[in-house]
Amino acid sequence: MSEKITGAEALVRALIAEDVDTVFGYPGGYIIPVYDRLYDYTDQLRHILVRHEQGATHAAQGYARVSGRTGVVIATSGPAATNLVTGLSDAMMDSTPMVVITGQAPAGMLGTDSFQETDVIGITQPVTKWSYQIRRAEDVPWAVARAFYIASTGRPGPVVLDFAKDAQTALLDWKYEKCRYIRSYHPYPAPDPDDLASVAAMIDASSRPMILAGHGVMISGAEKELAALAEKAGIPVAATLLGLSSIPSDHPLYKGMLGMHGNIGPNVNTNRADLLIAVGMRFDDRVTGDVAHYAPEARIVHIDIDASEFGKNVHTDATIHADAREALAALLPLVAEKSHPEWLAEFDRPERVERDAVMDVELHRTSGPMTMGEVVAAVSEATGHRGVLVTDVGQNQMMSARYFRYTDPRSIITSGGLGTMGFGLPAAIGAKLAAPERTVTFFTGDGGLQMTIQELGTIMQYGVGVKIILLNNDFLGNVRQWQELFFKSRFSQTPMVNPDFVKIASAYGISAERVSDRSELGAAVDRMLAHDGAYLLDVAIDPTDMVFPMTPAGAHVDDIMLSRTEKYQLK
Amino acid sequence: MEEKQLYTVTVFTENQVGLLNQISIIFTRRSLNIESLSVSASSIPGVHKFVITCVSDRRSMEKVIMQIQKRIDVLRAFLYTDDEIVYQEVALYKVPTYRLLDEKNLEVILRQHNARILEINREYTVIEKTGHGEETEALFEELKRYDIRQFVRSGRVAVTKSPVEYLTLWLEEQDRRQSQMV
Ligand SMILES: Cc1ncc(C[n+]2csc(CCOP(=O)(O)OP(=O)(O)O)c2C)c(N)n1
User: Fold this and answer.
1) Which of A16, A337, A387, A513 would suit a FRET pair with A97, their CA atoms being 20 to 30 Å apart?
2) What does the mean pLDDT of chain A come to?
3) B25 is a domain residue
């Protein structure tokens, strides 16, 4: 005997069947039937009312990235749906599992420019893993099951279900079955034994190997396997921005972050290595610099679950098409135990130079205004390096990624591929809701904070205990840095007249204080962390502070600026 | 830079709406111009076939194939050069009938070009020719003097020369994969 229910009811039941416990959303005309059904399920499904639909997407991303579960968003049609596009693109670039449900005009009215109708499928297809329009109630179970399967398996990504109003109210026979197979889709490629053997041989033959750990390490939960392989074969590990925290910062084989503002050691040694083993990363141009001069001495092994990444940006000598954890686990018994003391020692000099010429200058000033780095280091230290770092985009992002230290996996949530200002505040909300037991510290700039600042309302409504550290330089600092370095200090449209952020936070009932003096920083950080609930720390930052080291866009990876005037000397 | 040439891409998909858009944006994003396109049901029930031609270099085209294949509901995508396939296009030429009436050579031209008359009435005559692009082009040149009113050429249709039917094998493999799931 089957039970007749509405499409809207089916959607809610399907979400519960997929173990969803939290959704981020915002109601409106063409999604009201779903909201009506949610009203009866509040004990099983928590709905977080954001203040802007973009916020819902980033919150779902934060939720997904800290927990590994699929983030869920519900919004109405038209302007609400278009507000989701930034978050979808961001999730697509950063491989984040997300299911986004949008309301839509009734199927019969589609194509007539009816009120709040917009071509959601057409707009979102380029920035989603899959998007599908539900026009008949009986398609709801199939579409939702497929959406979760596609979003969460293989290389994760965002999926859109565009739900026509009449399909929400029509009846169907309720029956739900999770999706486990799609003929055209292979999310579990088995590593090829021949590929494994040849990669193991390349590792054994190498005397200067380096592992490049990307986001895929954490997506697949391969942190242990990564460390085990590195330790057995004595391979230094470098991380991409999204790969940070895949290995603890204090691991002896961890050599730092790759990329434009990464650490000098892994960047220069990319061009010295004889073997690069890239795991779940995609050779983004911010990591490779000029590809024509990238890793000239190295053979390149690429391990990825997405075969379309092979050879996309750099030429590879061997590939393993598989889940990172499976591939690394299978490689482990095949490689010989080895150590490369001379090669590891090659990281010492760049490390020392970076410490003296960059870090000391950033971290240990005694006079003048504060720098971003010292604030980040103080907060990281005060959390025992166990917090979750959420960043916005700009100098605050690079500084916090650099000076935060990571102990546990899934400890950095940042917008990598898209570089979305305004990502951070809602992402931090999502992260805190997914991991209430963890301290979530969110570093932002005065520009980025104001792009989604309305989400302070969400923090207020749900009492989300996010610690907001505003690195306030009254400038669009990152752009200012480029203007000073490459555009003759012509600060076109980068100075900002800012509001009193402490007052704004207070208006939302969020405790806040401003710190302008270095001597007060430590105590203020302690007050923030000791406070039960959300807190905003508005820190006055030297506007002339710059992120170094820096490999200018399009330069060789080992062409590195240490300061405004100094370059790193390779010899 | 690698040399550019004409490639034929065949894509087999499930019968789902929206795939044409998904496939075409992969070309547009890379500013690759689609020269011709034909879409039809394939010989396998429920499987659609796209034949796309595009001028580019092999490396770029291989990346395009990977991107196409990555889309959900795309079964397989293949890349071919002209020597690997048997292909044809259809061209139709509409000519005023009175211009042809006292043309003694018409029969000969049609025979030479392996073309035929599809429809003839007092107003106009429709001639059809199936062949490669250069061949339909050549007939166009020949018929020009009769004042062609309309000329249309279809996208390419193609089958492979390979004795192995890779798609069929792949589909069989998927059936096995599915049966192992339960
Ligand atoms: C939505 C969006 N708009 C514009 C940019 C370009 N952009 C990158 S960093 C930056 C400056 C950020 O300034 P702020 O938020 O104050 O942070 P800071 O760099 O000073 O830490 C800008 C404008 C972007 N990344 N995202």
Assistant:
1) A387
2) 97
3) yes
For residues B70 and B11, membership in a common domain is answered with yes
Range of the structural domain that residue A259 is part of: 193-347
Residue A431's φ and ψ, nearest 5 degrees, are -65, -45
Ligand 1, residue A481: give the atom nearest the CA.
19
Q: Which of A181, A184, A312 sits opposite B74 (nearest CB)?
A: A184
Q: Which residue, A406, A407, A398, is CA-closest to A371?
A: A398
Per-residue confidence at B1, pLDDT binned at 50, 70, 90?
A: low
- Domain shared by A287 and A416, yes or no: no
User: Do B74 and B111 belong to one domain?
Assistant: no
Please tell me the predicted confidence (pLDDT) of residue A1. Answer: 59
Which residues does chain A have within 8 Å of residue B66's beta carbon, measured at their own beta carbons? 307-308, 310, 312
Tell me what the pLDDT averaged over chain B comes to. Answer: 94
Could you tell me if B97 and B134 lie in one domain?
A: yes
Q: Taking the CB of residue A232, how many other CB atoms lie within 10 A of it?
A: 17
Q: Measured from the CB, is residue A87 less than 6 Å from ligand 1?
A: no
The per-residue pLDDT for range A254-282, each reduced to its tens digit, is 999 999 999 999 999 999 999 999 999 99
CA distance A392 to chain B (A): 28
**Contact B67/A at CB under 8 A:** yes
> How many helices and strands in chain B, by DSSP H and E?
6, 9
ipTM field: 0.92
Structural domain span for residue B34: 5-80
Examine the fold and report which residue of B80, B107, B142 is the final residue of a domain before the chain moves on.
Answer: B80
DSSP A303-337: EES-GGGTTTSS--SEEEES-HHHHHHHHGGGSPP
- The per-residue DSSP string of B148-169 comes to -SEEEEPPPEEEE--SS-HHHH
pLDDT single digits (tens) A375-426? 999 999 999 999 999 999 999 999 999 999 999 999 999 999 999 999 999 9
According to DSSP, the β-strands at A299-304 and A318-321 are parallel
Q: In whole angstroms, give the CA distance from residue B44 to residue B65.
A: 21
The answer on A342 and A384 residing in a single domain is no
Place of tokens 């095949």: A334
Reported as half-sphere exposure (CB side, CA atoms, 13 A), residue B53 has a value of 18
